[in-house]
Amino acid sequence: MAASSDKNIGDVILDVKNISLAFGGVKALTDISFDVREHEVRAIIGPNGAGKSSMLNCINGVYTPQQGSISFRGQTFSHMNSRQVAEMGIGRTFQNLALFKGMSVLDNIMSGRNLRMKTNLFQQAFRNPWFGAAEREEIAHRAFVENIIDFLEIQAYRKTPVGRLPYGLQKRVDLGRALAMEPQVLLLDEPMAGMNVEEKQDMSRFILDVNDEFGTTIVLIEHDMGVVMDISDRVVVLDYGKKIGDGTPDEVRNNEDVITAYLGTSH
């Protein structure tokens, strides 16, 4: 289950520099800097309220930090909305599922293809014979989505309304919808929250496979330390909105500040 030690980690693809974020007088993030290298699994950990989700929200344009900058493939942005960030190639799943519960697994994952579709929703809806190009495009998009469904091993549920699925499978559909965007960097906000041991093992395997087979760079927030230490290449640690550790899993595991603030024990 562990991250491969011989995989080819590339150059910096995402560079977070001196990010500070406050809501009124409350500081959520203070002068946070770290980078993410192409093809790695980069974990962000820390206690509840440490600023982890706020950090992801800054990266994907939900929040605009008061200070600092974020560079993606050498292009720096400080005021970018979520759609623009997605179009650049940064995908996201959320801690609280935002799936369309009445829609099928297939249609939920298809919704993740919207950024890749040239034809508009009117053309898709009416499927007029005049729109031959739209038809061909939709067939190609559906084939792409069917491959994701096969990859995530949810073929048996492709026509099932998502709201009827167990929680662990819903999280898998959420991952599939994000993958449908073909992101270069995928931000995962607690993808294993609320899962049992077996579901966590499955999700860990899928994350590693996405990283390995698709070459997707992963930035991961996760509370399960066993999972983080198993699948991550590097880990950044936040506490009360400040960075207190950054390095390999072994380096973080033995960092006294991290032990004191979060892990609670060196064993």
UniProtKB/TrEMBL annotation:
Which top-rank group of organisms is this from? Bacteria
Quote the cellular component terms of the Gene Ontology held in the record: plasma membrane
Q: Which GO terms describe its molecular function?
A: ATP binding; ATP hydrolysis activity
**What Gene3D superfamilies does the entry give?**
P-loop containing nucleotide triphosphate hydrolases
Give UniProt keywords alphabetically.
ATP-binding, Cell membrane, Membrane, Nucleotide-binding, Transport
Residues that span the membrane, as ranges: none
Report the residue ranges that make up the ABC transporter domain in this protein.
14-265
Question: What name does UniProt use for this protein?
Answer: ABC transporter ATP-binding protein
To which species is this protein native?
Rubrivivax albus
